[in-house]
Automatic annotation (TrEMBL):
This is NADH:ubiquinone oxidoreductase subunit H. InterPro entries: NADH_UbQ_OxRdtase_su1/FPO. Belongs to the complex I subunit 1 family. It comes from Brachybacterium fresconis. It is a multi-pass membrane protein. The lineage of its organism: Bacteria, Bacillati, Actinomycetota, Actinomycetes, Micrococcales. It holds the Pfam family NADHdh. The chain crosses the membrane at residues 43-59, 71-91, 126-145, 151-169, 181-205. Keywords: Membrane, NAD, Transmembrane, Transmembrane helix. It is found in: Cell membrane; Membrane.
């Protein structure tokens, strides 16, 4: 789980450098937008990752998945699950959380990219979204738990289900204004994620 969060932080540098390296005003503005948004979603995402770790008493993904036998974490920590998905959407520069690529700055980070460079950047967004959807399975959806099918098949089915929802929402939700996105991250998501961690901690202490 620590590794996953470290890779997430590295995305900040990758997107910003894509905007800075083009030596263009619009792309640079897009890169700095992403940095500002990263601060707004990274802390809530980190606290969302803490909740299943507290419940399982471990940072190992396998042990977190095993701790959900009988009851998936998404059932009793839905706020952490929702904040996690929003964070995944944010660091994938996806849907309503993609003002770093918006038309008001001529495409932002993408404004000076073309050909293979543009293809790699767009493919990276899909890869990050898919990785985030896959990581949600052992964290909140019981890993490979499920009837009839083998464990790997359930992991695949759950990953595809989460990814389908994220892709579908891209066309259903409008893009947030940069300042509104940051306000939601700091004022709503962060306190909600911390409150979820507190509830999980109390439950774990009560069981102990």
């Amino acid at each position: 789980m620590v590794w996953f969060n470290a890779v997430d932080v590295m995305v900040w540098a990758l997107v910003w450098l894509a905007g800075w390296g083009a030596n263009s005003t619009h792309s640079l503005v897009g890169g700095y937008r992403f940095l500002a948004h990263g601060l707004a979603y990274e802390l809530p995402l980190m606290f969302a990752l803490v909740a299943p770790a507290i419940a399982a008493g471990s940072l190992r993904v396998g042990e977190v998945a095993a701790a959900q036998e009988g009851l998936w974490f998404v059932v009793w920590m839905p706020v952490a699950f929702l904040v996690y998905l929003i964070g995944v959407t944010g660091f994938s520069v996806w849907g309503p959380f993609a003002p770093a690529l918006s038309a008001d700055i001529a495409g932002g980070v993408l404004s000076e990219l073309s050909g293979l460079d543009r293809l790699v950047f767009l493919a990276g967004r899909y890869a990050l979204l898919a990785a985030g959807a896959a990581f949600a399975v052992p964290l909140f959806l019981g890993g490979g738990a499920g009837p009839v099918l083998p464990g790997w098949a359930w992991v695949l089915v759950k990953t595809v289900a989460v990814l389908t929802v994220l892709v579908w929402l891209r066309r259903k939700l409008p893009m947030f204004r940069p300042d509104r996105f940051m306000e939601i991250g700091w004022v709503v998501l962060l306190p909600a994620a911390v409150a979820q961690d507190l509830v999980v901690s109390l439950v774990v202490v009560g069981k102990g």
